[in-house]
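[audit] Reproducing an earlier prediction to check determinism. Same input, same settings, fresh worker. If the tokens differ from the archived copy the diff job will pick it up downstream; this log only records the rerun itself.
[audit] input (226 residues):
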Amino acid sequence: MFSILVVEDDKNLRKLMCAALKQNGYMPYPAVDGFEALDEMDKVSVDLIISDIMMPNMDGYELVEQLRNAGFDMPVLFVTAKDSFKDKQRGFMLGVDDYMVKPINIDEMILRVGALLRRAKLAVEKILTVGSCTLNYDAFTVSFDGKQGETIPNKEFMLLFKLLSYPEQIFTRRQLLDELWGLEAESDERTVDVHIKRLRERFIPNDDFDIVTVRGLGYKAVPTVK
């Protein structure tokens, strides 16, 4: 279970965020400001931080600056009423990964948390092996039986890496589109179908995995039992 630190001085919003995260399978840890957040991080291992900017004692900017200077690289999502370009620029330059402007949609927050955690997982796991198939995230290559890897287009590679990272887990077309193409993308869900078709033409059949269509839901990768 992923641990999420929620740093928000508005009591009602903090409780709402924590309740939504818990309902979606995360373990939330509340904090009212940056100082309390740092104290909490001494006690628990945190996978992601959701933080307001304007808070008493230590604001979100200072919190992120201290974390990045100390070598902490977990994703940070700012949730704040400060919506000017300069505010966002300052946050991103300090090392913030994503930004939501209040009032926020809680369902969208959950989507963004999931996307940030998956990207963090990809950043750590640069090499993925399934049977004799090896995916190299730095080179965007797929190889079989140790032979020279084939470089494939960015989105095809990320889609395959995503599915194989979570074998047997079903992903809807919308989930894949939002994560890999972005929440603001103009593409529709048929884009995912096209890329799945291309992957199947490239790599199926093979002895290592299948990409299975789950009717009415989406897709999943199924490792082949040898």
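[audit] rerun output stored. Observation attached for the diff report: The CA atoms of residues 132 and 145 lie 5 Å apart.
[audit] end
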